[in-house]
Amino acid sequence: MASLDTLTLPLDQTSGDDLAAAGLEYRRVDADGDDFRPFLQAVGRGFLGGESTDAEVDNSRLTLRTRRLTGVFDRAGAVPAMPVGTIDSWATALTASPGRTIDLWAISAVTVAPTHRRRGIARAMIGGELRTAKAAGFALAGLTVTEATIYGRWGFSPAAWASDVVVDTRRARWTGPQAPGRLDFVPKDSLVERLHAVHERVRVRQPGAVPGWDGRWRGLAGLAPGDKAAERVRAVVYRDADGVETGVLVYTIDERDDFSAHDLEVRTLFAADADAYAALWRFAIEHDLVGRVKAWLQQPVPPVQWMVDDRRAVTATLTDHHWLRVLDVPAALAARAYAAPLDLVLRVDDPLGLADGTWRVTIGDDGEAAVMPTDAAAAVEMTVGALGSLLLGGVRATELAAAGLVKAGMNECAALDRAFAAAVTPHLDIWY
Ligand SMILES: CC(=O)SCCNC(=O)CCNC(=O)[C@H](O)C(C)(C)COP(=O)(O)OP(=O)(O)OC[C@H]1O[C@@H](n2cnc3c(N)ncnc32)[C@H](O)[C@@H]1OP(=O)(O)O
Description:
Number of strands: 17
CATH topology of the largest domain: Aminopeptidase
Number of helices: 11
Low-confidence stretches: none
Strand order of the largest sheet: 1-2-3-4-5-12-6-11-10-9-8-7
Helix content: 10-25%
Order of helices and strands: HEHHEEEHEEEHHEEEHEEHEEEEHHEH
Mean pLDDT: 97
CATH architecture of the largest domain: 3-Layer(aba) Sandwich
Oligomer: single chain
Shape: globular
CATH class of the largest domain: Alpha Beta
Structural class: alpha+beta
Bound molecules: acetyl coenzyme *A
């Protein structure tokens, strides 16, 4: 279904009616129409950015043409063409366990004009996306968030995490593996293809990951208009002993007062195997005239901590990154492979009524889940948010039970922990 053209789906009637009752218009925006520039300016304003130039509008259009753009308009406003609410969405693929993906309704660009905040516009827009996604057969919706306080009320919850990493290179002597391949600088204008190719190898094995897109790669590569650091972007690739490109590092060096201790800012580092990872991190840490390496969206427990002699030279700050919302419990649970058998009755509470119900969940020795509706008494109860967090195995049922988010006995929690244990720690390595 990732191939489904979401642009052809109708607008949600409930949201349209709710907004109309408040004197507001809910309508789709065509990336090639007159509405597009004001839509983009509204998104930029919502995310505290400046006004987009013509070149930036053209660049954004390349991506947003394939997405479902929806705006909320106030015809009584001073500039009625400028939406007071924006949202975009598209069908993509979430890796549920290594080598297995499930269709995901991805949501982004959620903004409401500061003049119109806290009147229920976001509620209407998010509700509209969830109902549309559910009606189209999606089992999951997902997003990355500006604030952790916003989306829980709609059943989203963190399912994959990422770490912001800072390495003090003066303390970090390399003790990690010696990679057998080679490193080479490559030109910026080759990076869209290179980032795409390496990331595709990474993300299919990485629970919590989604594919990138050309606009994302252009941005990281310093090829998007308006990028003030573009001329400082450099890129290095790793090729293994067979000449296969398995890693790419894109970075800038930001000057500090001490000319021997600048900051190397990693824009992105994708490595399809351990050798590529070690080679690229070693390159960054041992770079001359660099005192600090900073890298965002790294693995929750970054392996580089184990590759230097003073592990406290590496600071990793964990943050929730990928929030999921279950829309169809049987389909979401069937998406992944499990680590151990399980047989229990699960009750899921969903205040929005999209994924409410009671199911018998049976996981066989083959790690496959069968999920059937049942009237039997539930041994385990949880909110739809808790289920979203457990789904990829990024958090243990025992931990959520301690927080009161899962209601189950110790034995049921232990069984859930064994079954849901992730083969690879969930991680999302891009913003979307
Ligand atoms: C996937 C993404 O795009 S993440 C980006 C989110 N957007 C931003 O951070 C941009 C800046 N912020 C905004 O544009 C707006 O404040 C939004 C989109 C976050 C909220 O829009 P609003 O129209 O004001 O929200 P709305 O009025 O529908 O609020 C619905 C509920 O969420 C609550 N809420 C809204 N924003 C926030 C917030 N930032 N933190 C906590 N609660 C919030 C409201 O209080 C309300 O709660 P209630 O139902 O208990 O009364």
